[in-house]
Design brief:
Blueprint: H1 7-19, H2 35-45, H3 49-66, H4 73-98, H5 106-123, H6 128-151, H7 157-176, H8 183-189, E1 199-202, E2 205-208, H9 209-227, H10 229-239, H11 241-246, H12 251-277, H13 288-298, H14 310-329, H15 334-356
Antiparallel strand pairs: 1-2
Helix pairs in contact: 3-14, 4-9, 4-12, 4-13, 4-14, 5-6, 5-7, 5-8, 5-12, 6-7, 6-12, 9-10, 9-12, 10-12, 13-14, 14-15
């Protein structure tokens, strides 16, 4: 039995069916976000906004509480000087935390490399420039050592760097004999080691080269993380390492470079710390690890990796400096200064958890 339907009749049937169809335009419901949800989305898209707001509020609050002394050019420049070394450590720590890791050995690397530079230049007669290069190379080596254990042996970053912290700390005590290198000896034999301790005055403010170095380090690392393919890979690893692997990123190699770069930044901080302190002490910056993590967390960089701007760590370090200076000028005991910083950390992590719910 043959089909006698002509093409013309098929077209007419289609047109009749089309005429009888629903002609209403499709509509979609739009979610009405509350003000709180809009703020949550804004902070998620701009993670540096939180520390900036906290810094501005802190400056205003302590300016009102502590009086005119707080806003003096000298005091503000003093805050910058005080946070310069911890700020450099926070920059190194930020690189690691963005990859969803953590480094408990940053301060030990910094102090160890300052001891290496001092021993070579002051006691061994090695030219200061060469001693500094050896120290910087040693910082890279220490960082790569951490990265090798993490990428090749597959040890967790926390356990790895906890172990290497003990190793590096024991080495610096052995190399230094648990003795400081006096400022007079450095001035006599290797004054270039104190290069970043030099300062200049601008309108009552005293700016040290170590403070300028901190700012330069943050700018360079910000450019590397935001304007290069390497930086995009670093964030991708922190967000989801397995997905980064599947997308073709050489995750182990990138992680190794991150830890090596962090070690270099720590060694640079070690050189700057000699000028900041004026001597080389194996006991200096003992709490540097916790201080660097504090600056990173308060700066809005997520401890879970993959989110946050390295500039946030700079603002985080400044917030800690502002709090300590403001509380000190207000006559608050050091004990309660530590108490306040502890609450800052808890609040910062709580805000980070709240912001992360946007992407959940």
């Amino acid at each position: 039995m043959s089909d006698t339907t002509t093409p013309a009749s098929k077209g007419q049937d289609f047109e009749q069916t089309l005429d009888q169809s629903d002609t209403q335009v499709a509509s979609f419901e739009t979610d009405q976000h509350t003000v709180l949800e809009r703020i949550q989305h804004l902070l998620h898209n701009n993670p540096t906004l939180v520390p900036v707001i906290v810094l501005v509020i802190s400056l205003i609050a302590f300016g009102l509480i502590a009086g005119g002394k707080f806003f003096s050019a000298f005091n503000l420049s003093l805050i910058l000087q005080q946070v310069s070394i911890i700020g450099i450590l926070a920059a190194a720590q930020s690189l690691i935390i963005i990859t969803a890791g953590i480094d408990l050995s940053v301060a030990a690397i910094m102090v160890l490399m300052s001891v290496v530079m001092g021993n070579l230049a002051v006691f061994a007669g090695v030219p200061s420039g060469l001693a500094i290069l050896v120290g910087l190379a040693g910082g890279v080596g220490a960082g790569v050592m951490n990265g090798w254990f993490i990428t090749r042996i597959k040890l967790p970053p926390f356990i790895t760097t906890l172990g290497t912290w003990s190793i590096f700390y024991a080495l610096l005590l052995w190399l230094s004999g648990a003795q400081s290198i006096r400022g007079q000896d450095i001035d006599t034999n290797a004054p270039f080691l104190k290069f970043f301790g030099a300062a200049f005055n601008i309108g009552g403010a005293r700016i040290t080269l170590s403070a300028l170095l901190m700012i330069v380090v943050f700018i360079v690392l910000w450019f590397m993380l935001n304007k290069t393919a390497w930086g995009r890979h670093v964030y991708a690893i922190g967000d989801d390492k397995e997905a980064a692997d599947l997308s073709g990123i050489r995750t182990d190699r990138t992680l190794l470079s991150v830890y090596g770069l962090a070690g270099f930044v720590c060694a640079l901080g070690g050189w700057a710390s000699i000028g900041r302190v004026g001597s080389i002490s194996p006991q200096s910056f003992y709490e540097g690890n916790l201080d660097s993590i504090t600056a990173v967390v308060i700066g809005g960089i997520s401890l879970f990796g993959g989110r946050g701007s390295i500039m946030g760590a700079l603002f985080g370090a400044l917030i800690v400096g502002v709090f300590r200076s403001g509380l000190r000028l207000s006559g608050v005991d050091v004990l309660w200064q530590v108490f306040a910083i502890g609450w800052l950390i808890i609040i910062a992590v709580a805000i980070d958890q709240w912001i992360r719910r946007v992407s959940a």
